[in-house]
């Protein structure tokens, strides 16, 4: 019965995309346990369906089959569904990080006694919670699988912390542990990793606390619109023309669209960018149509320079779509918006006013379509800003990887770059370019990277690579431990400031919908009707 319901929901055109998003994430959290993945996915999707049915019922109970309230109900369904899914992902991530922290303590304790990484991992797994037990087994399998390389684990690791731990285990198995200043490098790096995980847990929990209730503040004003209209008409029957007329209908649409935009901005401020890495199935299906693919390629070929720059930009922000997929996403969303806005504006009856009404209708449809086409790009600019905020965090991650590798025998610049490439998000494009051109450009490639990025911590890292050509890797990176301590402390202080600024922006814009509803649905109609009555009394 359960499998039948799951297949039905997964193959349904309305729920297929969301099921795939949840299932993909659950497969990372619960690797190797298909039954658990199906159970969690089904439970979450059923919760979302029930919530959406209740929302639609409440709105349509008041608004009936009015197309504008149907439009509003679909937008609310989208917002509540996305919030529910992201909240679940975030909760599971925090839960897994806490389990991982405990697991690292156990590994550290076991490794101190016999220095055997396999035994330490196996013993630590016995005391692990369920999610961590699955992750630990997967990590052990990857470590012991001689046929697969470390790139295999990159695709299945839940986050960069697991990748760092995997890098630690690989180096210990391959090169053995090293003792520096009477300290085990493995134990020292394990302590650094544990501190980083603690910082991440505290950061996420603080963000959850600071953003608590904002989704409700954003969405609830939409539920109040119909109630205000009913109350207003009961008190002043003349307001019927306002609320049920062109202005009232246009107000509903504008408020809904503004609410949707604000909601998406708040989601981007609250949650990690990797939550938004799932490709839409309909884009792949569209590109599988031969004539659509050919049209897109012809358009890109005619504007090659423009789309080459766009492709470089998409790679620099580690976006989920390539330039072809991004272009088709923009075009078809614009076409969908054009059709929807045409239907809504015809339903408003603006075109019936006369030539002026037709002109206004065409202008509104054109503006909405153009805004939709550029909306995706504006969201990318926000993503770019958020990525820049996390640049220092990525430098700390690079330093952690270098600390793991720098003391190992026979390690080379190429090996270090290979590992950095796997960890990179913000600087992924730059590290890939360095790795690809190092063979024929030599050390000059690091100077070029400094000019491209123009970020001091990254420049200092590149200087170390340049120096390693003359004095060796260990000496050139000798200051990295003190640098890392400085950047970690600096990042902790900046984290608080960044979170506070994000929360301040989110709280400010979250109250915009309720202010618009009060102003344009409650205050202005009553003032407008009051002025009309005063005018009629004056004429009498």
- Amount of helix: over 70%
Alpha-beta classification: mainly alpha
Terminal CA distance reads 74 Å
The overall pLDDT average reads 85
What series of H and E elements makes up the topology?
HHHHHHHHEEHHHHHHHHHHHHHHHHH
Radius of gyration: 28 Å
Structure summary:
The protein is mostly helical and 540 residues long. It is built from 25 helices and two strands.
Structure, explained:
This protein has 540 residues and is mostly helical. The protein has a domain at 1-212. It is 83% helix and 1% strand. The chain has 25 helices and 2 strands. The protein has helices spanning 2-11, 16-29, 34-63, 67-114, 117-126, 130-144, 151-156, 160-175, 185-210, 214-235, 240-243, 246-270, 281-287, 290-302, 304-316, 323-348, 355-389, 391-405, 413-423, 428-441, 444-453, 456-471, 473-476, 480-510, 512-539; strands spanning 179-180, 183-184. Strands 1-2 form a two-stranded antiparallel sheet. Strand 1 and strand 2 form a beta hairpin. Helix 4 (67-114) runs parallel beside helix 12 (246-270), helix 12 (246-270) packs antiparallel against helix 24 and helix 19 (413-423) packs antiparallel against helix 20. The chain is elongated, with a radius of gyration of 28 Å. The chain starts with a helix and ends with a helix.
């Amino acid at each position: 019965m359960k499998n039948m319901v799951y297949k039905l929901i997964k193959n349904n055109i309305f729920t297929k995309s969301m099921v795939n998003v949840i299932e993909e994430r659950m497969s990372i959290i619960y690797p190797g346990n298909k039954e658990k993945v199906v159970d969690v996915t089904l439970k979450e999707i059923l919760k979302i369906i029930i919530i959406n049915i209740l929302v639609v019922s409440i709105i349509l109970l008041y608004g009936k089959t009015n197309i504008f309230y149907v439009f509003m109900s679909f937008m609310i369904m989208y917002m509540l569904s996305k919030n529910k899914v992201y909240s679940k992902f975030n909760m599971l991530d925090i839960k897994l990080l806490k389990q991982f922290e405990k697991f690292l303590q156990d590994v550290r304790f076991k490794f101190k006694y016999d220095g055997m990484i396999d035994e330490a991992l196996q013993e630590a797994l016995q005391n692990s919670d369920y999610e961590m037990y699955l992750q630990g087994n997967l990590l052990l399998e990857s470590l012991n699988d001689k046929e697969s390389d470390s790139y295999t684990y990159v695709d299945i690791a839940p986050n960069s912390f697991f990748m760092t731990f995997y890098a630690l285990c690989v180096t210990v198995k391959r090169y053995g542990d090293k003792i520096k200043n009477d300290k085990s490098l493995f134990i020292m790096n394990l302590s650094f990793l544990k501190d980083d995980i603690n910082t991440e847990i505290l950061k996420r929990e603080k963000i959850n606390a600071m953003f608590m209730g904002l989704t409700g503040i954003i969405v609830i004003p939409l539920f109040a619109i119909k109630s205000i209209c009913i109350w207003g008409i009961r008190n002043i029957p003349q307001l019927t023309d306002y609320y049920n007329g062109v202005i009232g209908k246009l107000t509903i649409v504008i408020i809904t669209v503004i609410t949707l935009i604000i909601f998406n901005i708040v989601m981007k401020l609250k949650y990690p960018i990797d939550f938004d890495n799932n490709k839409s199935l309909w884009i792949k299906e569209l590109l599988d149509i031969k004539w659509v693919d050919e049209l897109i390629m012809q358009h890109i070929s005619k504007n090659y320079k423009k789309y080459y720059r766009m492709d470089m930009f998409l790679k620099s922000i580690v976006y989920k779509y390539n330039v072809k997929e991004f272009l088709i996403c923009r075009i078809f969303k614009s076409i969908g918006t054009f059709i929807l806005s045409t239907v809504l504006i015809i339903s408003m009856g603006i075109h019936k006013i006369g030539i002026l009404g037709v002109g206004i209708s065409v202008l509104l449809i054109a503006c909405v379509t153009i805004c939709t086409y550029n909306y995706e790009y504006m969201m990318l600019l926000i993503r770019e800003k958020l990525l820049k905020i996390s640049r220092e965090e990525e430098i700390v991650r690079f330093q952690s990887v270098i600390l793991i590798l720098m003391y190992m025998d026979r390690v080379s610049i190429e090996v270090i770059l290979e590992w950095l490439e796997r960890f990179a998000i913000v600087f992924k494009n730059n590290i890939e370019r360095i790795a690809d051109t190092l063979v024929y450009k030599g050390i000059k490639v690091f100077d070029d990277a400094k000019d491209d990025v123009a970020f001091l911590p990254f420049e200092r890292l590149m200087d170390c690579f340049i120096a390693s050509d003359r004095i060796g890797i260990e000496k050139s990176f000798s200051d990295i431990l003190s640098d890392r301590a400085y950047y970690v402390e600096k990042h902790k202080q900046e984290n608080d400031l960044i979170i506070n600024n994000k929360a301040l922006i989110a709280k400010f814009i979250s109250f915009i919908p309720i202010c618009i509803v009060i102003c344009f649905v409650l205050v202005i109609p009553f003032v407008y009707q009051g002025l009309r009555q005063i005018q009629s009394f004056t004429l009498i």
